[in-house]
Amino acid sequence: MEETKLILAGAALNQTPLDWENNLLNIKNAITEAITHNVDILLLPELCITGYGCEDLFLHPWLADETFGKLLQVKEWCEGITVCLGVHLLLGRDVYNTACVIRNKEIVGFTAKQFLARDGVHYEPRWFTPWPANEVQEFEVLGQRYPIGDIIYEEQGVKFAFEICEDAWRPNRPAERHLPKGVQLILNPSASHFALSKTDVRHRLVVEASQKYRCAYLYANLLGNEAGSMIYDGEVLIAQNGKLIRRNELLSFKDVDLELAEVCFGDNPTIAETIEYLPPIDENRELIAALSLALFDYMRKSRSRGFVLSLSGGADSSLCAVAVAEMVRRGVEQLGVLGFVAKARMFGLKDAAYFDMIPEEQVVRELVGRLLTCAYQGTVNSSDDTFTSARELAESIGAVFHAWTIDDEVRGYISKIEDAIDRTLTWEKDDVTLQNIQARVRAPGIWMLANINNALLLATSNRSEAAVGYATMDGDTAGSISPIAGIDKAFIRQFLIWMQRELGYEGLQYVNSLQPTAELRPSSEAQTDEKDLMPYEILNKIERLAFYDRLSPKQVYEQLLADGTASEDVAEAYVEKFYTLWTRNQWKRERYAPSFHLDDYNLNPRSWLRFPILSGGFRDELLSLRD
Ligand SMILES: Nc1ncnc2c1ncn2[C@@H]1O[C@H](COP(=O)(O)OP(=O)(O)OC[C@H]2O[C@@H]([n+]3cccc(C(=O)O)c3)[C@H](O)[C@@H]2O)[C@@H](O)[C@H]1O
Ligand SMILES: Nc1ncnc2c1ncn2[C@@H]1O[C@H](COP(=O)(O)OP(=O)(O)OP(=O)(O)O)[C@@H](O)[C@H]1O
Ligand SMILES: NC(=O)CC[C@H](N)C(=O)O
Question: What is the ipTM for the molecules in this complex?
Answer without folding.
Answer: 0.96
